[in-house]
Predict the 3D structure of the following.
Amino acid sequence: MSCLKKIINAPFVLMLFSICLFVPNAFAQDCIQENMELETNLDNLLSKRLISYNDMQNISESMSSAQNKRCNLSSHKGKLQALKEKRLATVNMYLRNGIKNEGTIDLTNEQDYLNGKPVKFKYAFDNVFTGSAVNPPNQSTVKIPPPTQRVPIKNIKPSGGSCENKINQNFTVNLNNTRNQDSVGWCYAFAASDLVSYRLNKKISAVSLFDTSDKTIEQDVATGSKIGGDIKYSITYSLSKRKGFCLEADLPSSDFKFCTDQAYLGFLNDILTRAREKRLESDLQNDQCLTQNLKSAFPGVDIGQMLNYTKKNNQFRFVEYLYESQRKVSLKEEASKIRVQKLNAKHVSSELLLKRLHDQINNNDVAAIGYDYNKVNQEKNEGAHGSLVVGRRTNPVTGSCEFLVRNSWGKDCTLNEGPGLSCHKDCAGGTCRDTGHFWVEENRLSQSLIDVTYLE
């Protein structure tokens, strides 16, 4: 009896009681995170024109993860039905074009399954459309919180556990080669080029990612409206319209000669006007500054070939031609492997945006962010900006989790100092120098995030 009394003491009973309270809570938080991620995946799929075998495989894995935790998935019923209809439309199109298999899937069998007919073989992704898991005992139903009731950040455990110190860098994107966009408003292009550079391990020119509109660049140049843009679209535009990227060595973008948008747009508009009026050839012969500016903007340009192009095509797609003429190395094969994804704060919670950043860092990868820099710096007015997140740490003084942001304003870091904000310094050799990167508290960045763009 005395031994039993020693075992059943107050701390032990309290520990058991705590465990009993903790387990349902842990299940609940896991299910909130699973549901939020599943909803994002479904939204991304439903925005696509066709649903592929790989898409179904990915959503099946997400469903399996949630089902294994016995999460209630009933809130996704409508979107799963829409996914089923879109996948059926894709399968029907394949079969009409004589494609009978996709991966290991027999499309005829899948068509029967999706139409509710008896099937010969088990459907590979049956878990996506049949049933939803129940909750563990004593766990209340978990629903995805609406935007006005977001789960506090402290209740969302980042993927990979605690905020361990980790910086991801390679030959192209590292702490010693911060770019400088000067006063050119192409932060989106610098962030996008760094994102692609890190993946391909080749230095990609930010200038080659310059246009992101649905108009021709000639229209943008003529109106002077090409200021600002979107990180994801600048990549997909370059892949679809320019058939790849230019290397930094062929089309330099750091410390750009035309250090403002207006100067660069003015230069492009000038040569377009000269080409349209059929006087570009004579002007180049008589204007040394024009020739120097042309070779500064497009170092590898062959002026003879360029003039032949203008004679045949006048100014049509002339600027695109100049960009394409700088592509000395074909990156078509590497570029074909790039799949761009984007999460927007309008559609998902800040917690899910942060989780994606943690996931990328855990996977030895990086992510591009759109954010309100003025809010990060606690300044008035809005200041949308684009940068790269390349690392994180636990601040040794405050104990808070911080992300390492790679900016494109050179190595000067005077604007990035203050509470929750500090410059990253390279202290090798006993002398500390700014790198142009800065640390920002997770909570502060969370409040300013607009979107997260990453490569699969």
About this structure: The first strand starts at residue 101 and ends at 102. The beta strands are 101-102, 105-106, 166-167, 340-344, 367-372, 384-394, 401-406, 421-426, 433-441, 449-455. Residues 14-144 form one domain. Confidence is low (pLDDT under 50) at residues 1-27, 132-161, 212-216.
